[in-house]
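Quick question, first post here. What does this chain look like in 3D?
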Amino acid sequence: MNKYFVLLLTAFLCVANAHARKGYDRDIKTSLFVPKGSWMGGVSFSYMELAGDNYEFLILDNMNGEGYTFKVSPYAGYFFKDNMAAGMRLNYNRTYADLGNIDINLGDDLNFDISSYKYLEHEYTIAGFLRTYMGLGNSKVFGFFNEVRLTYGYGQGKTLSGTTPDVKGIYQTSHRLQIGAAPGLTAFVTNNMAVEVAINIVGLDFKWADQVTNQVEHGSYRKSSANFKINIFSISLGICTYF
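> Answer (accepted):
Ran it through. C-alpha cells below.
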C-alpha cells in the first residue's frame, strides 16, 4: 500500500508541475493602491445590543432581559511591499447579558423556567496580521482587502444565577488561539484617511477554560473547531490613516 501511495503522490506532483509550467495567463492586472514604505494605523469597532420584554418565539415564552457585545480594536502596520502590509492588532471585547426570565414550553408536562441569570465577560487579544489590497479596477479610492490573522486571547468571566439565598456564582478564565481571515472593503475619504468595513471569518479556533463554582468546585473544558462560515454579526467598521 505504501508503494502505491508513493506512486500516486509522484504522479500527482508531476501533473501539478506540468500545469504550473504551462503558466496560463488570466490577464489580471494589479494596480498600485498603497505603495511600499507606507505606514497604516487605525481602529475598528462593533456593537450589538439585544433587549426583550415579554417576547415570545417558538417554544420560548415571556422572555425578559437585555444584553450587549462591544468590541474595539486598534492596529498598526507597515507596507513592506506594494499593496501588502504586516502589523499587529489589539482587541478588547466585552459581553454582558442580564436575563430576567425565560419560560421554555415543550408540552403540557414539560415546562421550564430560567430566571435571575447574569453573565459578564472581558476578553483581551493580540494578533499578528498580513493584509493585501486590490483596487477596484483602476480606482485609487475604492478597493478590496483581505487580512489573515493569528490571534491569542485571554478572558475572564463571571456568571450569577438564582436568587438569595440560593445564588450560584461561577468564575471563569479562558485562553484562545485563532487562525482566521477578515475580508473587507475600504474607501478613501481624503488622501490619507479611509473608512473600512470588514467581516471576520474564523478558520481554526481553540479555546481552553477553567471554572470555579461558589469558590469550591473546580471544572474545565476545551473546545476546538474549524469553521469558514460567514457570520453577519461579526461585521465591524473602522477608520484607518495612511502615512
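Residues 1-6 have pLDDT under 50 and may be disordered.
Residues 36-242 form a domain with the Porin fold (CATH 2.40.160).
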